[in-house]
Design a protein that fits this description.
The complex is a heterodimer of chains A (376) and B (163).
Chain A: H1 4-7, H2 17-40, H3 45-54, H4 56-69, H5 78-116, E1 125-134, E2 142-145, E3 158-161, E4 164-172, E5 177-181, E6 188-193, E7 199-204, E8 211-217, E9 227-230, E10 242-250, E11 257-264, E12 273-278, H6 290-293, H7 295-300, H8 319-326, H9 332-341, H10 343-346, H11 351-355
Antiparallel strand pairs in A: 1-2, 1-12, 2-5, 3-4, 3-12, 4-5, 6-7, 6-9, 7-8, 8-11, 9-10, 10-11
Helix pairs in contact in A: 8-9
Chain B: H1 8-22, H2 27-30, H3 36-47, H4 53-67, H5 74-88, H6 90-93, H7 98-122, H8 134-155, H9 157-160
Helix pairs in contact in B: 1-3, 1-4, 3-4, 3-5, 4-5, 5-7, 7-8
Classes of the chains: A alpha+beta (376), B mainly alpha (163).
Chain lengths: 376, 163
């Protein structure tokens, strides 16, 4: 550094000297080491979390323009407010009415399930969170939420909004978390076609608005307008939430596989709230044989009901479904067949979506009509 | 260490550039966002000889990595590389008029975009490649304006003490 002696003297024109190249070399080596270590494990997760926490003020400042733009929302005329209030009240009454019916259906469903000795489909626990920031890289679809470790958020947690699945949490900081949206090219979500039960995987296309369903068999029964719902396979996403709607089918001549394109039903780049859904993670597994019976039940079976013990019997039968569905990219025919044959056993969680695909409550309601007993 | 070693204006502009990099823009123009941090660091590397640009580039790169959740060290490496190149070639660059320098620096932005693209590729983060090159254009266009503005700002007698 300069000393006061040099202060008055003109700065040297070429100040490179031996230090500059050496500095560059050291810093570059350090960066490369960090990258290699970061890509091979998660040992930097705590450090990242703390740096993110320290950088939060920057994030707040970066958000300020948005907050200012939304200042206009504070000014409404009285008439507007009254009209909105009236609308909301109407809506509330309407929903209350539906809810009444739902409660009785839920109770009925539980009784019938008890008769079938299978686990009840309990609503998932949810937590509402605010979107603090969205990723500004056009090729990285991530959002930052204002809930973190302190609220019990965990890595891999599913994120939904009122219209469908948004994504999953990929990094948890003490008071915030980062979620990857389903449109990110790194993201894949197991889905099923609600109309036919065909299992497949929806990958993000990376253009910010589309999902791609590659490697569908050429003769797959799939149409423009079909609704995709999460299938719950893999256990990360709760089953039965709407994911997307097909808008285009591509079947290039001479290709074995067909590709379908879908728009997400969730409003990924609108709105400032998102719901974090607790599914299977927080509760310890109760019975290893349950998950094979019905993947979506795996998440709910562990609630402190002691019923879990008494359905070890149906466990063995439907395993081909799970196996076929996870491997459906390479062997489409068995997957479709398996999904079709096991449909009665596997379907109930998806059924309510035909009835109310855009139900604003994110809790997957208990099935309206319980399926026929698959096992005598 | 003396009173001139803290460089408030330098640190402030770098901090501001990190914020600008994060401010939400409408979808239509978000892809054209200039690389503000790279631009700021290159400006200081080009117009001054005494600022610890490399170290600041590394630190702000790590901050960007955390903020954008990219591989730790990705932004840091790219920023350190271009600041080093510009600082190294400074003696040549300052002989030319600003507009020519701005054109020549397009190569620096392209190198930055390429490094990011390359590291993303190595870490299997696929993305739409066409969107990556738009910031090169916008940064090239914004650099002369930003540089002129900063030169004016630093010429103010009140601020001269701070730089």
């Amino acid at each position: 550094m300069n000393t006061t002696l040099h202060d008055s003297a003109p700065k040297p024109l070429f100040s490179r000297g031996p230090g500059l190249a050496l500095n560059f070399f050291l810093l570059a080596c350090l960066s490369i080491t960090l990258m290699v270590m970061d890509s091979t494990g998660t040992r930097f997760a705590p450090a990242r979390a703390w740096v993110a926490w320290a950088l939060q003020p920057l994030m707040w400042v970066a958000q300020a323009p948005q907050a200012v733009a939304q200042l206009g929302d504070n000014f409404h005329t009285r008439d507007q407010l009254l009209a909105e209030n009236r609308q909301l009240k109407q809506r509330q009454t309407e929903l209350d009415g539906r809810l009444l019916k739902l409660e009785s259906l839920e109770a009925e469903n539980e009784r019938i399930r008890a008769l079938l000795s299978s686990a009840a489909s309990l609503p998932d626990r949810v937590l509402i969170s605010e979107v603090m920031a969205t990723s500004q890289d056009p090729y990285r679809h991530q959002i930052v939420l204002n809930r973190g470790e302190q609220d019990g958020v965990y890595k891999g947690q599913a994120l939904v909004d009122a219209n469908g699945v948004m994504g999953q949490v990929i990094q948890v900081n003490p008071t915030t978390c980062v979620a990857l949206l389903i449109t990110d090219p790194d993201h894949g979500i197991p889905v099923e076609i609600n109309r036919t039960g065909l299992q497949t995987i929806a990958l993000g296309r990376g253009d910010g608005q589309g999902l791609s369903l590659p490697y569908l068999p050429g003769n797959a029964d799939i149409k423009v307008g079909d609704l995709l719902v999460s299938s719950g396979l893999g256990g990360r996403f709760p089953a039965g939430y709407p994911v997307g709607r097909i808008f285009e089918l591509r079947h290039p001549a001479g290709e074995n596989f067909m590709e379908a394109l879908a728009y997400p039903t969730a409003k990924l780049n609108q709105g400032r709230q998102a719901l974090l859904v607790w599914s299977e993670h927080n509760t310890p597994p109760v019975d290893v044989s349950v998950p094979t019976a019905r993947p979506e039940m795996k998440q709910k079976a562990q609630h402190p009901q002691e019923r879990a013990a008494d359905h070890a019997a149906p466990a063995a039968a439907p395993t081909p479904r799970a196996a076929g569905a996870t491997g459906n990219a390479s062997s489409p025919a068995p997957a479709g067949a398996a999904a079709a044959t096991n449909k009665p056993a596997a379907k109930p969680a998806a059924t309510p979506n035909t009835a109310a695909p855009t139900a604003p409550k994110p809790k997957p309601a208990a099935p309206a009509a319980p399926p026929p007993a698959p096992h005598p | 260490m003396n009173r001139r070693s803290s460089f408030p204006l330098f640190s402030l502009t770098v901090l501001l550039s990190v914020i600008l990099q994060m401010v939400a823009l409408p979808d239509a123009i978000a892809a054209f966002r200039p690389e503000w941090v790279a631009l700021t660091l290159v400006y200081w590397a080009y117009s001054t000889a005494d600022k610890p640009v490399l170290l600041v580039a590394w630190i702000s790169g790590l901050a960007l990595d955390v903020l954008f959740n990219s591989l730790l060290g990705q932004h840091a490496l790219a920023l350190v590389t271009i600041s080093f190149l510009v600082r190294r070639l400074r003696g040549t660059l300052i002989l030319f008029p600003m507009l020519q320098v701005a054109l020549a620096l397009a190569l620096a932005w392209a190198l930055y975009a390429f490094l990011m693209f390359w590291i993303d590729g190595l870490s299997h983060h696929s993305a739409v490649p066409s969107l990556r090159w738009l910031p090169v254009i916008s940064t090239t266009l914004v650099f002369p304006l930003a540089a002129l503005l900063m030169d004016r700002l630093r010429a103010q007698p009140k601020l001269r003490r701070l730089t």
